[in-house]
Specification:
Distance between the termini: 40 Å
Largest sheet: none
Radius of gyration: 20 Å
Oligomer: single chain
Strand content: under 5%
Number of helices: 16
């Protein structure tokens, strides 16, 4: 990778998500200054934006370059708005992030070593997976032909009809857009570069979940992360376990759902319901639903199912029935994606 490519990937996968997420969290009521929360909300917004733009453009026969240009313009506008709204808050977020290391327990260094060990395995070694013949090849084909699912990834011939269970969740187009904007080959991007950010994001979510469960007790949070590290590293006893998916093929949409999205939905739901979140918290949860619909067709029903279970648990303990309406509205991205799939298949 060249210096220019490194700068561009850090721009689109680190700075832009942080600024976009900061615009969402600026309107939240509680615990809004965590870097992990900004980054999570930013990635979820990028997923939602990809779904909203890519799905109609696929059926309209648009080009990948058109999608990438519109996608990048929207994100840059959001980032500018974020810098205006958060002109004094951004320094506070950075300061709070730096100060959080003052309470860093000694075993926190073990957690960091284990996390970067997992990242090193992705960057230095290689795993070949049969599903890449479609998922990674779709991104490569999109970049090479400047199209959106218009060519068969197995034969290279023009598609005569769409395979709806894949098209309805166009996550390969997210990879293709990032590849287009950074000039990094889509296969290298998927296998080596993006896993760095997906692994970090997964542990950011686990950190947020631990902070929510243990009421910001730093000692317990890092013990929780240490347990999560060992569980992920030694939990790949079967190829269909979520820990195995995270360990060897996190670049696939279904792996990100298992490793990141389901825990993120659990965190956002608990935060929103039990900590009396406002509309911005529900919006972040809606973005998570859109992200699940983008990543895999399984996410279209798994994400609402996860939120539904947590909503029922909240109703049993608090009996506030208006939360049903909020949860249903949050699920609209999955509901709409499901309807489109039924109509178009």
């Amino acid at each position: 990778m060249t210096i220019q490519q490194i700068v561009l990937i850090l721009l689109w996968m680190l700075l832009v998500p942080f600024l976009a997420g900061s615009l969402v969290t600026a309107f939240m009521k509680s615990e809004q200054d965590s870097f992990s929360l900004q980054y999570l909300c930013g990635i979820l917004f990028m997923f939602m934006l990809t779904l909203v733009l890519a799905l109609p453009m696929i059926f309209m026969g648009s080009k990948l370059s058109t999608l990438a240009i519109i996608w990048s313009i929207v994100l840059l506008v959001v980032c500018i708005l974020s810098m205006i709204v958060n002109r004094t808050r951004l320094t506070r977020i950075i300061k709070e992030t730096v100060c959080s290391f003052e309470k860093f327990p000694w075993y926190g260094f073990i957690v960091i070593v284990l996390i970067f060990f997992q990242i090193f395995m992705y960057v230095y070694f290689q795993h070949i997976d049969d599903d890449d013949a479609f998922f990674v090849a779709s991104a490569v084909t999109a970049v090479d032909t400047d199209s959106l699912f218009h060519y068969n990834t197995y034969t290279g011939l023009p598609e005569t009809s769409f395979e709806m269970r894949y098209v309805i969740s166009p996550f390969p187009m997210f990879t293709a857009v990032i590849s287009f904007l950074t000039s990094i080959h889509a296969a290298i991007l998927a296998h080596t570069v993006l896993p760095v950010f997906w692994v970090l994001l997964a542990y950011m979510v686990y950190y947020l979940l631990g902070a929510c469960l243990f009421k910001n007790d730093v000692r317990k949070i890092y013990l929780f992360l240490l347990f999560a590290c060992f569980l992920n590293i030694f939990g790949g006893s079967a190829v269909y376990m979520s820990t195995h998916f995270m360990l060897v093929r996190i670049w696939q949409g279904k792996s990100i759902i298992a490793s990141v999205l389901i825990p993120a939905i659990a965190y956002l739901a608990v935060r929103t319901m039990y900590q009396k979140g406002n509309w911005a918290d529900w919006l972040a949860l809606c973005f998570a639903m859109g992200g699940a619909a983008l990543l895999s067709s399984m996410g279209i029903y798994l994400a609402p199912l996860t939120l539904g279970i947590l909503t029922v648990a909240y109703l049993i303990s608090h009996r506030k029935f208006k939360v049903i309406l909020y949860a249903a509205v949050s699920c609209l991205p999955c509901i709409i994606s499901g309807i489109v799939y039924i109509i178009m298949r």
